[in-house]
Amino acid sequence: MGDFPVEIVLALIGIAVPIGAFLYEFVLVGRKRLGYRVQMDTPVTGEVESVFPGVLPQLRPSLDGASPDLKDLSVVLVRIENSGATTIDTHDYKAPDRIGLHLRFPQRMVIGMAVTELSDTGLADSLDHDSALAVREDIGGHIGVIDLPKVPLDRGEHYKILAILQRSEGTGEYPAPVLTGGIKGGRVLETRSRTGIPRMMLGLTVFLVLVIIVQLIVTAVQPEPTPLECASGKLTLVGSSAFAPVVREAAEQYEKRCTGAKFVFGFEGTERGLDRLAEEGKDNSGLLAISDGPKGSGYPALVHRPLALSLFTMIVHKDVGVRSLTETQIRDIYYGRVRNWREVGGPDLPVVLVNRIPGSGTRNTFERRLLGGDQPDRPHVSCTAIKGTVTSGAAHCNVQVTKDMQRAVGEIPGAIGYSEFSEAVQADLPTVAINGVAAGRDAAIDRTYPFWGVEYAYSHGELPGDSLAAAFLHFLVDQTGKDVLRAHGNAPCAELPDPVRCLPDA
Predict the structure, then answer these.
(1) Pairing status of strand 287-292 against strand 452-460
(2) Higher confidence at residue 29 or residue 486?
(3) Is 166 helix (H, G, I), strand (E, B) or coil?
(4) Element (H, E) at 406
(5) Given this model, what pLDDT does residue 171 score?
(6) Cα four-point dihedral sign 472, 473, 474, 476
(7) CA 389 from chain center: how many Å?
(8) Averaged over 452-459, what is the pLDDT?
(9) What is the pLDDT of residue 67?
(10) Which residues belong to CATH 2.60.40 in the chain?
(11) CA 90 to CA 123: how far, in whole Å?
């Protein structure tokens, strides 16, 4: 429907109508409202005197000592109440004399009446013999009338009139009694029993349901608006296998909102990702590399963009049993000075070092944060080659990506390695506290936990502002993508107390 804000208009109508109904009902016409309700209108059959001995003689008047013949009788009970929001005083009645209201009974005459119930005993003063309460006939005796005085009623107060009536004309059912009169600034109206759903409430409910149905129909037929950060095209993401699950999930979230976007992944490690970007990325805004740490000096054309503080952890085989190591112990293990787990409180089991291959961003972060420099040179050994073998002494092996690291540590007895924290937890691998501090985002932010790194996105030169790569990075660091970063235990760089910490030379 174009740019016309149909949903907003419907929402405003849905708000305005109930408010208007409330103001109309309780402010305009409902502030002063005198209601009446016929609670009983019953024909009397059979021997009245034998059923209710002594009642009718008290209610019906005597004429020269003789009562009129009683036939075709009915008993009516009418409740008169203040059903408005404010008090009704004697001066609120429109009638100029002492009579305030007229209770009329078409086709019947009144042969007896009584006030049967007062919500407050103080009302009796307005309904005694000195008041304007009286019985008369109108229209040639065809309509019986009970004149009611001007009774002051507080909110919710009421009184009831019981009348004995005799038919004056007609046959069949009696016309309903009617209360007439006027209230200044209000009205006199027939009310209903408060059991069940009030008509106004039912009407408002139906109206609101219809508004909701119309909104659903409008939403269904309208095309989903394209979010402002959306861009279309294809974007290839390569690089860090440690950060791959985070980027994949963020890309899936982006594709749900931006159906014109398509993502391709090639997470084979930081070094391979940077190499591919350097070789293929020139004049290609559809290629980004994700790196666990700064790129170094070998890629001068690549431009960095900090993403998040990423959490890493040491992992061990379940049989090792060691759940905490100091930084010194970790250095001694990887420099070959500790060769059996019993030397650090573990079982009599040779240590098997599992490393990422040189050039891995995760390995660089591990060496920079925990070892303080490069590891000793060791010949390359595939972890697949030593699985299932019995080692009599310390051993080592290398893996290509994070998943291979987790698999090797989980399968080789005595193995120790390192991994992105949330992926290690998801793989159900035992993690190791460092210096007695467990891996945690807050501990990494306040630097009490030492094994953390910064994730970067690299492009070949600056990105066009309308490119999918630029839009996706904006989504990742400034919009909904930040929730994905946090869900994986990372801290978005923009939310750090010291954001300069994410700069490559920090």
Answers:
(1) antiparallel
(2) 486
(3) strand
(4) helix 402-411
(5) 86
(6) positive
(7) 55
(8) 94
(9) 52
(10) 31-190
(11) 12
Among residues 116, 184, 104, the alpha carbon closest in space to that of 148 is found at: 104
CATH architecture of 31-190: Sandwich (2.60)
Decide: 361 and 267 in contact? Cβ < 8 Å: no
Strand spans (E) along 83-142? 99-106, 108-118, 134-138
| CA-to-CA separations, 155 to 174, 237, 289, 308, in angstroms, rounded | 32, 73, 75, 65
In angstroms, what CA-CA distances link 386 with 240, 318, 352, 402?
25, 18, 10, 18
Cα–Cα distance, 360 to 506 (Å, whole number) = 20
* Topology (CATH) of 311-454: D-Maltodextrin-Binding Protein; domain 2 (3.40.190)
Residue 424 has pLDDT above 70, yes or no: yes
DSSP 414-437: TEEEEEEHHHHHHTTPPEEEETTB
The rounded mean pLDDT for the chain is 86
Class of domain 234-310+455-502: alpha beta
Specify the DSSP element, H or E, that contains 28: none
Category of 316 on φ-ψ map: left (φ > 0), alpha (ψ -120 to 50) or beta:
beta
Checking DSSP bridges between strand 261-266 and strand 233-239, what pairing results, if any?
parallel
DSSP lists the bridge partners of residue 262 as 234
Q: How far is CA 314 from the centre of its chain?
A: 39
Residue 23 has pLDDT above 80, yes or no: no
- Extended strands (E) in 45-85: 73-82
Q: Is 492 helix (H, G, I), strand (E, B) or coil?
A: strand
CATH 3.40.190.10 domain position(s) in the chain: 234-310+455-502, 311-454
Q: How far is CA 172 from CA 72, 232, 414, in A?
A: 11, 80, 103
**Pairing between β-strand 99-106 and β-strand 108-118 as defined by DSSP bridges:** unpaired
Question: What are the E-state strand segments in 168-209?
Answer: 178-181, 186-190
Whose tokens are 């209610």? That residue is 59
Side chain identity, residue 176: A
Do residues 100 and 151 touch, judged by C-beta distance below 8 A? yes
Q: 369 CB contacts (<8 Å, ≥6 apart)?
A: 312, 450, 451, 452, 453
Question: Strand 287-292 relative to strand 233-239: parallel, antiparallel, unpaired?
Answer: parallel
**CA distance linking residue 8 with residue 3, whole number of Å:** 11
pLDDT digits (tens, 9 = 90+) for 390-405: 777 899 999 999 999 9
Q: Which pLDDT does position 297 carry in this prediction?
A: 81
- CA–CA separation, 158 and 77 (whole Å): 13
CB 357 within 8 A of CB 367: no
Q: Token pair of 293, please? A: 């740490």
The C-alpha angle with vertex 81 and arms to 75 and 84, in degrees rounded to 5, equals 150
pLDDT given for residue 48 in this prediction: 45
Q: Supply φ then ψ for residue 476, to 5 degrees.
A: -75, -35
For 147-175, write each residue's pLDDT tens digit: 999 999 999 899 999 999 999 888 888 89
